[in-house]
Amino acid sequence: MKFVYCLLVSLLISTAALAKEELPELKVHKQSDVAYISGGADPLERKAMHRLSGRYWMQFSISAGEDAVNVTGVKVTLRDIRGVALMETTSEGPLFFMTPPQGGRYTVEFVHDGETISHTMDLVGRRYIQMEIRFKQAGAQ
Question: Which of 12, 108, 112, 140 lies most in the core, judged by the most C-beta atoms within 10 Å?
Answer without folding.
Answer: 112
